[in-house]
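Hello again, I could really use a second opinion on something today. I've dropped the whole record in just underneath, so have a look.
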Amino acid sequence: MQRFLSAAALGCLAIVQTAIMSSAAGQSALPRAELRSGPVSTVVTSLPPTPPGRSTILGGKIGLVDSVRDELTLAVYGQRSTRIFFDERTLVYRNGVRTSLRDMRPNDRASIQTVLDGTNVFAVSVHMLSASPEGEYQGRVLSYNPQTTELSLGQASSRVPITLRVPSAASIVRTGQTQSSSASSGTSDLVKGSLVSVSFKSGDKGQAIATRVSILAAPGDTFVFTGDLSSLDMHKGLLELTDPRDDKSYEVTFDSARLPATFRLHDGDHVRVSATFDGARYVAHDIAVD
């Protein structure tokens, strides 16, 4: 990730300057972003686009803010502190009002929209709140303890699970396709492998308290996907398609020996795929070209 250094402000005087960063070895200098007066810093130099990929919202309390290394730590509810990088592309808000990077302070409660930039976690936006923040987390159920009501979730992009408490007042619903959402739902769906999206808030002791748990897929659920093939790997038995009904991409595994129709597939084909979720992946049991 390309890093940027922030200009310092003295009192109410805003400094507009162009800084040149160079090493002792005399490497070529890079132009620095210009800051204008006011609470919001405006970048006037060309910046690279925000890293692509699915974003995740993390809620917690800001710890260290290092404006030299452009990084902060966030004490995420239910897990260890997470190091998050930021730069002039990061949008910062306090109680919904746009502010500057310099306004981020330790002990602020915040909800941070993040995305992976290589192996680093990058802050797309930081929302600091006077009240306890709310957040959302999507992952796979690792465990659920009905006695303590603690739910442990994990993501492929993180080795550190998040732990939440699911009180009896929390709403647990099935969402998505008819085959899944038509069934009644409850804590019995919080089995290992279930794919869920959880909305949560901070409790009095800082623990994440779930307010809504959406069951996206539970082991054994069946789904029917339709859309255009964006990728096809016959060697791995893996295809990816985008379903226009929810504008989401799905990876589905298949066994070409059991589904000979896969040998006639090509990228861009419009297909209909019937699959079962096994707790880790969608497994095709029928594939047809529309």
